[in-house]
Amino acid sequence: MAPLSNDRKRALRPELDALVGTDGVLSDPDELLVYESDGLTLFRALADFVVFPRSAEQVAAVVKLANREDLPFVARGAGTGLSGGCLPAEGGIVLSLMRMNRVLEVDYDNQIAVVEPGLVNLHLSWRVGPQGYYYAPDPSSQQACTIGGNIANNSGGPHTLKYGVTTNHVLGLEVVMPDGEILWLGGKTRETPGYDVTGVFVGSEGTFGIATKIVVRILKKPQAVKTVLAVFDQVEHASAAVSEIIARGLVPAAIEMIDHLTIQAVEDAFGCGYPRDAAAALLIEVDGLAVGMDAQTERIVAACRERGARDTRVARDEAERQLLWKGRKSAFGAYGRVSPAYMVMDGVIPRTKLPYVLGRVNEIVAAYGLRVGNVFHAGDGNLHPNILYDPRKPGEEARVVQAGAEIMKLCADVGGSISGEHGIGLEKADFMPFIFSAADLGVMARLKRAFNPTNLCNPGKIFPTKKSCGEVAVGYRPHPIEAKGLAQRF
Amino acid sequence: MPSTLVEKLAAVVGPDHVATGVALSPYVIEGRTPEAAVFPGTVDDVRAVLGVAAALAVPVVPWGGGTAAGVGMPTTWSGLVLGLGRLNRILEHEPGDLTVTAEAGVTIAQLQAALGAKGQWLSLDPPDADRATVGGVIAANASGPRRHLYGTARDLLIGVSVVTAEGEVVRGGGKVVKNVAGYDLPKLYIGSYGTLGIVVEATFKLRPRPDDERFVPVMLSSVKDAGAALRSVMGSDLVPTVLELLDADAARALGVTAAAALVVGFDGLTEQIDWQATELARIAAAHGGRTGAALGGGATARLATAARDACPAAASVMRLSVLPTQVAETIEHGGAAAKARGLTSAWSAHAGVGVVTAVLAAPDVARATDIAAVLGEWRGVARAGGGFATLEWAPLAVKASVPVWDDLGAAGRVMQRIKAELDPNNLLNPGRFVGGM
Questions:
Q1: Minimal Cα–Cα distance from A38 to chain B, Å?
Q2: Could A289 and B435 be called an inter-chain contact, meaning their C-beta atoms sit closer than 8 Å?
Q3: Which of B16, B302, B324, B343 is the most exposed place for a label (fewest CB within 10 A)?
Q4: Phi, psi of A395 (to 5 degrees)
């Protein structure tokens, strides 16, 4: 595939206009630029068209046109993804779902809502909040990311420790299949006949079709919430405290770790009240019944103290709690205070390997002459090392990519995974053999063929590009679209 | 040909681990006797057995504890029963990671005992824990009352190893609690009844054991009132682990005397349970009911089988999945439909998630027409509300006139393609699952 010739593009434009309206099609290269990357700006690729459908029928019509023209297509939400998952292939059509952003139905008695894919995650919680409900999955980008994008990536967030990830909250999907057929997977009831096709669709990174209606669970807001900040002079002690909390029979709603470098950045940017000299801080939240909240908080404080916390503080009111969370949720943005650029890593390890792996991550990054800030979901063992660098310095970005690959290998070697929530997309396709055999990938390829036999729906993602899956060199190699000069890394 | 099959199997696992002749009687399903049963002791032997079966084109029926062996249609040809009982090791339990990896033949009771010794548990409580195995629970998507809060296998299974129809070992997911690398293969095998691959190992997320647990019955004067009380509990600040609705017969099987009952379970700190029990009593009173003494030990096991226990002469068991607000109405209509034809029924439900178990009692097998009519009406009630029904257990004569599974709708085409991709020669439990899969 290659981008369309100008003639073909001119010929198709009126057809797309007729399907979604003239105000719903972009084809000018300058306008398309906005859609050339997602939150990971390392990869860029231009589509031939970006369209903005308003209904499942319009999505289906565009998909059928793409099939007729043999054009690749990909759905896009807010573009906050961090693995290049919603990038167009070489040309083709991007279907932006941002105009399909309605809450179609809320059924409080049955605790479900039906929403469109372009709905911003947080907007659902706003909508049902006045009735005492919320939508549990809370990715850090929840003010911008869409629920459709969350479906593609099976997104998590800080509170997944207790409440699970997106897939645990999705009951059914109306889907435009890669051939343009509209059908339902799952439904509103907890059990539907046949294989769990809803379950495999969630997290398929847009390669199985395009969800156009989503049935999600909404939960009753907990009666009470308590947030504890525990401050440590050694990272190892903070790691050990995570295990100690779990060992004491507690399942907090969230256990987040924020390291020294990140605390500096956050305090510079926002002044959230983290002690600047701390080696690491844990942000621990318990929620649930008001009764017993103090007892649980005491257990957490005791666990942290026993593992060497130098200070523990319970947020006194909602304002203080929000401020502590602001520090956590705004950490990525705060890195701008201490570095011109950073790259977010996403890996998962068994919780008990935290002290070892954090030490190794620091060694790996230091060996490349770079700095790393860690802010992550410690309770889940879901690491987010953020490697700081200066893109203007020649060769520095290539070293970031190499260090990132080594960190992924490290996660795999301790029995973990190469992604906890950001997905594989383009970025990590070649790392898949770190954790999956050729046979494992073979079954995934068959599953993909069952949904997407022509491979026009979001091609080039997830699966390794190398012919032989067995051998994978650690380090950066140009993606094919980049080698052909169709995409660039910045 | 059978002797060739048996000889080849014996060469793989040793003659002591191949059953033939009268030794096959435990593996007879609805009158169909398999040609042999084989009990491999390692994953490699499972692969080799699949290789033998594939080479001879003999279909394979995977077998755990046999607790769900009667679910679904009998396979078109019962072929070879592959028993996983010898794969019974717990491979890895790291309490600090709150994960466990076990072989498919480990029973749920065995697993819980080992985890309990370390203060943890798998928050899944399927019936027949002494016999039900890890692999079988995944294949049948078995669950119990605590699913109200803790979910089902799809919420707890984080990794799976499967032997494919071609005899390859394939791993999906992983051993960490959060993982989005690649497609979510564990979901594919949950509830697939052994038709896509044979689960040989599984990794689950665990929970710490709660300090305390209690199951409080609420006695109400009608199923309708129980439905209203259910709605109030769901809309309250309570965080129940279990929320069951039972009709009079099922309640009686639990030792609770009432026209209808809710059983509400709580766990956590004792002070949390006390507060919730008090709050529950207030809600019960508002619906004209009252709470009774907490149920004794083994409550969840008895809850899981209450409707069956109420009908020793069960003719059929139907499982209906509806919205929680439809549970009470489903039970009222369904019970009336049975009564109208002179049959009795007993009902229990994981009401907060809308999963209803209906047992139809028939004193006389000759009532086949009435039985089929009632089951058809029950299914109609579920379907009318957008729900589904599965004939979970019934004699073959009933299954002949009442479909076991619901129509799959358009999604069925995707499922058929998945089956064709993963088991192209249709060797795994052929014909047993929905849509002939």
A1: 18
A2: no
A3: B16
A4: 85, -10
